[in-house]
Amino acid sequence: MSFERFLETELDRCTAVLPEWADAIADCASRYSATMHGDFPAWSAAVQQLVAGEDPQTALRALMPWRKGPWALGGLHIDTEWRSDWKWERLKPHFTQLRGARILDVGCGNGYFGWQMLDAGAHFVVGIDPTLLYCMQHLAAVKLLGEANNWVLPLTLEESPHITCFDAVLSMGVLYHRKDPLEHMKHLTACCVPGGTCIVETLIVSGESSLYPQGRYARMRNVSVIPSIRTVEGWMSAAGLHGPRVVDITPITVLEQRTTPWMTFESLPEALDPNDPSRTIEGHPAPVRAIFIATRSDAAAA
Fold first, then answer.
1. pLDDT in tens, 247-272
2. Quick one: CA dihedral 157, 115, 45, 61, positive or negative?
3. pTM value > 0.70
4. Quick one: CA torsion of 159, 157, 127, 6, rounded to 10 degrees?
5. Which of 108, 209, 106, 109 is nearest to 159 (CA)?
């Protein structure tokens, strides 16, 4: 089987469980190309190696950096930049409507959380992430773990169909990158069925006032706002979500986000003040992340 046929099969399977997105899924096929990213030929060659049953280590290393995980693939332990399993353990006790659920994971990265949600009983998980490398990592995982109702499509939320068809919608690590967070929240709500669950995980600051970094935050260029808890809850309510509540607040340490042999670039340790790890290198409060959960109200669907 060729890479192209393997990709076609995966997109067809996704269309079968989510026919409402058929046109958008069909359009995704053209995004797997060197036009979208110059490294695509190398990435597709790596996945082709896996399709052909060749050495997984060479192929998986060609798909570095690996950020969300960890993974056990092809007999290898992939120690990713993020201990995403720790985040999942913080979320799982509060995500109680997984059995049989149809889930949209916005900004899903390589689809790591999709596998966790399937294991917990979800019917299917469709992840969207415009970073083509993450989509290729997901295809590699599918080839090594086997077909499952978990897909990653190279789309942004703005490009995806705003069709009310998901029992749960997740946005994890996305909100603070949005120039209009309320509009992002409205898009999430629009995709969620009445009575469905919306989960938002984001950086937060303590106190009443949100932080609008001038320049970088923890060496990240594209941070528009780091909101307060009250601000996030206000956005959720304004978007038509009922009962927003914060279920977890966790300071992020260098044990949870760091450089590894599978992600060799600088990470959180280099983003913190070496003399005061409670501050970023720019002098802002160090990263603290919170998980918010709310329910789409019937009024939002009217």
1. 999 999 999 999 999 999 999 999 99
2. positive
3. yes
4. 10
5. 106
